[in-house]
Amino acid sequence: MDQPSFIVPSSSTAQQVYDWLHDRILRGDLAPGARLSETEIAGQVGVSRQPVREAFIRLTAAGLAEVRPQRGTFIGRISVGAVLSARLIREAVESDLIRMVSATTSPALLAQLDQQLEAQREASARQHVEDFIALDDQFHRSLAKAAGHADVWDVLEGLKSQMNRLRYITARVFDHQKLLDQHTAIVEALRDGHADRAEQAMRLHLRELLTDLPEIARNKPEFFTK
């Protein structure tokens, strides 16, 4: 793992170690099944083992790590059930949100979404997966905020850790163009003031995972659990 340089003495060390490991697990830098060593990570970060141990406990509680008796702590496999549940919740919530947005769409919002789409295209052209996913999240957060429910996106974000792990895998494997086209279809439906089409485009977009997941699971069965 890369040498981190983020530890700030004035903040909780355990929280900082947790955030760092959490981010690396979601991005796939730490693959499912990889062993976590308290001693190794403490040495790399430059802290005692106690905050690392606390971070491991939190990762385990979040379903991102697992303790195997007499063997140690390992990166947890991706829960297919958790991914599908998060996707279902997102579709139900975001389909309602997009209908709310369609009733109040403004030129300023459309300009903002157009700019975000262009930034996504640029990130895709650079093959920068982290930027692409961050911009994807920004796009959906902007729609939730436009609907007057930015806090709802924060709730969704807390539910989709396992889903985000899959997103990083698919963003490295599959062509981004389909997702870009789907985002564009959502924006064009809003531009036309067509609520039904906007909702349909959102549902289609969020169901893309149902196609991607089986293929990834077949190719990387060791990464997944029910």
From TrEMBL:
<dbReference type="InterPro" id="IPR008920">
    <property type="entry name" value="TF_FadR/GntR_C"/>
</dbReference>
<dbReference type="Pfam" id="PF00392">
    <property type="entry name" value="GntR"/>
</dbReference>
<feature type="domain" description="HTH gntR-type">
    <location>
        <begin position="11"/>
        <end position="78"/>
    </location>
</feature>
<keyword id="KW-0805">Transcription regulation</keyword>
<keyword id="KW-0238">DNA-binding</keyword>
<keyword id="KW-0804">Transcription</keyword>
<dbReference type="InterPro" id="IPR011711">
    <property type="entry name" value="GntR_C"/>
</dbReference>
<protein>
    <submittedName>
        <fullName>GntR family transcriptional regulator</fullName>
    </submittedName>
</protein>
<dbReference type="Pfam" id="PF07729">
    <property type="entry name" value="FCD"/>
</dbReference>
<dbReference type="InterPro" id="IPR000524">
    <property type="entry name" value="Tscrpt_reg_HTH_GntR"/>
</dbReference>
<dbReference type="InterPro" id="IPR036388">
    <property type="entry name" value="WH-like_DNA-bd_sf"/>
</dbReference>
<dbReference type="InterPro" id="IPR036390">
    <property type="entry name" value="WH_DNA-bd_sf"/>
</dbReference>
